[in-house]
Design brief:
It is a single chain. This protein has about 70 residues and is an all-alpha fold. The chain has one domain. Helices cover about 85% and strands about 0% of the residues. Helix 1 runs antiparallel to helix 2. It is elongated.
Amino acid sequence: MDGELDETALKRQLEDLQLEHRTLDEEVSALAECGVTDQLKLVRLKRRKLYLKDEIYRLEDILNPDIIA
């Protein structure tokens, strides 16, 4: 039963990270369209997106490991 709880928690965490990544993507796009020149903010948002992407891949690997026969 612990395995099921862990998997459920990981899936929930994955969904949360994916949602945050999409939200940041929309924010970065909106800033780019508005011509906002706050480069520091833009760089921070992009770094956060990259971090989230790495975490998403890590969780996906845990949930769906590649099995080499």
